[in-house]
């Protein structure tokens, strides 16, 4: 019996034109699409006239719909998994599903697409040969500090996702732990209307954002990249 495949499909992180021809083709031909937020994903599907049924998939409802997913695959039907934006599973749901299907020897196929961390790294001006991705750090100050202390001596470029409301907390932590002259790259809203890039010593970046009154009107999704050593 031929089993269906799960396609893990990268989708745009901002501009809806940033999608591959193959991704559109696959999303049109699969039986249904697993999406974190069906309302957000419908905007993309509508733009490309993709009529495939959307089903909400999150870590929280994994157990509830896993049986249905496996049933469809066992019928020989192909499915796709997408996230709200970018490459699925990168700080997004999906790990539990992919691991289960791998263990049961189903085919899981990657369709390359946009990723905020790779896009930001490519224009960061910081070393790209060795890097570590930490995703969103914990809210606890002590836990954030402990993680940074763990990685700062490895001489790898460090990539962190951060929300606008906690951006200053992160920048001040970098200043305290790595020194005020450590160089960072800050990318905001990549491929979106308010896209912006900042590069320089962390203390100068803090000054720029303070002068602009960013704390009074925090907005955007940030990728913060830092190299904890001399360049």
Protein described:
Helix 7 runs antiparallel to helix 8. The termini are far apart. It is elongated, with a radius of gyration of 20 Å. The model has no long low-confidence stretch (mean pLDDT 95). A five-stranded parallel beta sheet has the order 3-2-4-1-5, sandwiched between helices. The chain has a five-stranded mixed beta sheet with strand order 6-7-10-8-9. 35% of the residues lie in helices and 22% in strands. The protein is built from eight helices and ten strands. By secondary structure, it is of the alpha/beta class. It folds into two domains: 110 residues, Tetrapyrrole methylase, N-terminal domain (Cobalt-precorrin-4 Transmethylase, domain 1, 3-Layer(aba) Sandwich); 110 residues, 2-Layer Sandwich (Methyltransferase, Cobalt-precorrin-4 Transmethylase, Domain 2).
